[in-house]
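For the sake of clarity, the format in which proteins appear in this thesis is described at this point. Each number in the token line that follows is a code from a learned vocabulary of backbone shapes. One such record is shown here in full, so that the layout can be seen directly:
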Amino acid sequence: MIAVLFLISLVVVSVLVVVLQVPLKRYPVVFYLLALALTGLYLYANFVGAAVPLWRYLLVYLQRCSLALALFTLVMFAGVLPDGSKLRTLLFSLRRELSILGCILASGHVVAYAAVFLPRMVTGFETTSANVLVSLSISLILTVLLAVLTLTSFVAVHKAMSPEGWKRVQLLAYPFFGLIYVHLVLVLAPSALVGNASAVLSLTAYTVLFGGYLVLRVRKAIKAQSNETVALN
């Protein structure tokens, strides 16, 4: 079940972030290289082959993009947690590093699936279902947003941009998160509609996750606007 893989990833990633917060902040390049190595291993296994246990206990988390989504989830919720909370302080201080790690791990998923579906789309466009076409179109947009957000997350690029320009680019994170949910719905909905229990549970879990984030984001925006109004008065 996709949701189970994600929940396992979220727990493991959360624990690692807490345990490794100091080295991750001090030596992020080491973690980026480890993520690149893991992504390279996944792509090698995808196109050449690897032992079944390696797929079952490790590579499946890259195949389903569970690790990357877990990292993006921490980045998402960092912005909506209560101000001053220890968890918000921790995650906010590591948003850049977590975002880059998520982007690196997601790149393997993008390359592997693009290699499968793009040729099919080119050679059999007329017979490709509308669901697949829409899903691939959204995947393309997500890939572009992923590239832009990754590039602007690096310190050197950040410093080269104006503060206003960088903030505008970072607003792309909101459509990025929203399109991830749409992508998941398009992937899971066909199976869920025919009664596949695993797909139904996964779709429900992701709806609760992204719905919860939306509620917290709106609540935080309303609170900020209310505080601003009070300050002006």
About this structure: Residues 197-232 form the longest helix (36 residues). The chain has a mean pLDDT of 88. Residues 2-232 form one domain.
